[in-house]
Amino acid sequence: MFADDSTIYCKGRNVNTSKTIMQNAINEISKWEKSTGFKFGPAKSKSILFSYKTNITPPHIYMNNILIPPTNDLKMLGLNLNNQLNWSKHIKFLKTKTKSRLNVIRAISNRTWGANSIIIMRTYKSLVLSVIDYGSVIYGAAPEAILKSLDPIHNQGIRLSIGAFKTSPIPSILCEANTPPLEIRRNMLTYKFALKRLADKNNAISPYLFNTSPPSLHLKKNQPISTRIKKWLDTTNTPLPKLLSPTPYIFPPWKMNLNTNTSMIQEIQNIEPSEIPKHFNDIILKNFCNHKIIYTDGSKSNVKTGLAIITDEETFKFSSLEINSIFTIEALAILKAIELTEQNWKNTKSFLIASDSLSSILAIQSQGTANEIIKNIQERASSLAPRSVTFMWIPAHKNIPGNEKADLAAKEAASTNINIPKLDLSSFKDTARNSLINSKKIHQRLWDQELNNKLHKIKPFLSPNPNPPSSTRRQQVICTRMKIGHTNISHVHLMRRESRPNCEFCNSAPISTAHLLLECSNLSEQRKIFPHLTLRDILSIDNFNHLITFLKITNLYNRI
């Protein structure tokens, strides 16, 4: 149900059985309608039978003895569906809609007086890419040939945004804009969608997202979401994380048993660093002398992540998922400490959990957090009543013995040479960020294959492309075209179907960016403004002003 629209569906192998189930459901809705005052319009409703078979007659469904009109296609929540779910009509609709929106990009992307390329790129993402993204998790099941018909829209929008010449290779355009192809973007969005449902075990589609059953015979026609997700996991070599299920708070805010202590934030400003351990001990003796002190810490290395929980008597170490942020690791350490208070120290009345992660302590202190790990800490701390737990922030690396031991133990847990229990918990934010990182890695692999590409020789790694300071639109376009190696003076002959021209200065070699900036013998005097530099250096942002000067003195500035 969405607003005043309701959808009823039934999945089955036998049409007659499905029809009976559907008709019974409609009959029950009709009874409910009469008892509540709601009114449905059978004439305004539609019924559709989704099947790959072409010789099936759509069943007739009735509401209040009025036939619900059967149809072969319909529009639902902005998606155009047809009875074979091949998405051809929806893709055609997307192409029509996005082509009209590209006119806005054309209007502001004039290479002489147009807007800043970064602004145009943001406009493209807001007006055009957002339309393509909407529903891509669903229509991404369409055959590859149909999906590829959207690629020219994406490529043209990016080309207009950065001002690349019309003959520029597509891999170069995507690299210069630091934007992945649509296929990679669709797969990333599908995986993020699945992650959100992975945590919610009660979601109706959760069982279908990671279904490992043999693929359907119709796989060549449509790729189910489970197949696409598995392909993404295999391509990125990503283990499936465990996410805490989103649940409402059990305790109302006024019954939350959350005690936090951040007094040392201000107090350490007025004391010498060498006095901090003594000051901490004074706080313990004054306020927490009857508490069991638990120190927690997390560590992240290039290879692994780890966390530790320390008391006077015991040390607990755990490794964690590599994708986890330091915030998540620190929060997991606190959560594990709470679990230990429930399991190992049932006779202890009061606990003090000391952590050097201020962000974790402040998150625990706040109400209405969206982070399920923090929410779990809050719930479990409150459920300890009548026992109490206090979360205290302590400064790191200030020779507080418990904190130093926890720091050392966490670093050991994050090393690769010890065998300890592993926590496979993560947060949605970390897994979503990791999916973005993986999409960039896949794009980089594609870019690594473009060994003969002109831009690849000066920009082998994908990276953001900032505009030169105080540059005009014309200068940004010039810079982009020179780096890609496709300019008006060197490649307009392709559009005119003419032979490739020689350099007009020396007439001894075909004209190209590299020839003008490095090789032309008749321009050696003009090139003295950037002597002994490689093509990558000349086209870097540091030599932008020298490049513009060179183009002006050679009368090439208005011909790029």
Give the topology, please:
Elements: H1 15-36, E1 61-63, E2 66-68, E3 73-76, E4 79-82, H2 88-108, H3 117-133, H4 136-139, H5 144-147, H6 151-162, H7 170-177, H8 182-199, H9 206-209, H10 225-236, E5 242-243, E6 259-261, H11 264-267, H12 276-287, E7 292-300, E8 305-310, E9 315-320, H13 326-343, E10 350-355, H14 358-365, H15 372-383, E11 388-393, H16 401-413, E12 422-423, E13 425-426, H17 428-448, H18 454-458, H19 473-484, H20 488-496, H21 513-519, H22 535-538, H23 544-553
Parallel strand pairs: 5-13, 6-11, 7-10, 9-12, 10-11
Antiparallel strand pairs: 1-2, 3-4, 7-8, 8-9
Helix pairs in contact: 2-3, 2-6, 3-6, 6-7, 8-10, 8-17, 13-15
Q: Determine the CATH topology of the largest domain.
A: Nucleotidyltransferase, domain 5
In spatial order, strands of the major sheet run 6-11-10-7-8-9-12
Helical/strand content category: alpha/beta
Largest sheet: 7 strands, mixed
Summed up, the helix count is 23
Task: Determine and state the CATH class of the largest domain.
Answer: Alpha Beta
CATH homologous superfamily designation of the largest domain:
Ribonuclease H-like superfamily/Ribonuclease H
Total number of distinct structural domains: 4
Which ranges are low-confidence, i.e. pLDDT below 50, for 5 or more consecutive residues?
Answer: none
- Per CATH, the architecture of the largest domain is 2-Layer Sandwich
Distance, first to last CA: 55 Å
Instruction: Choose one word for the global shape.
Output: flat
Average pLDDT value? 89
Q: Work out the helicity level.
A: 40-55%
- Cα gyration radius (Å): 31 Å
Number of strands: 13
Strand content: 5-15%
Protein name: RNase H type-1 domain-containing protein
GO molecular function: nucleic acid binding; RNA-DNA hybrid ribonuclease activity
InterPro entries: RNaseH-like_sf, RNaseH_domain, RNaseH_sf
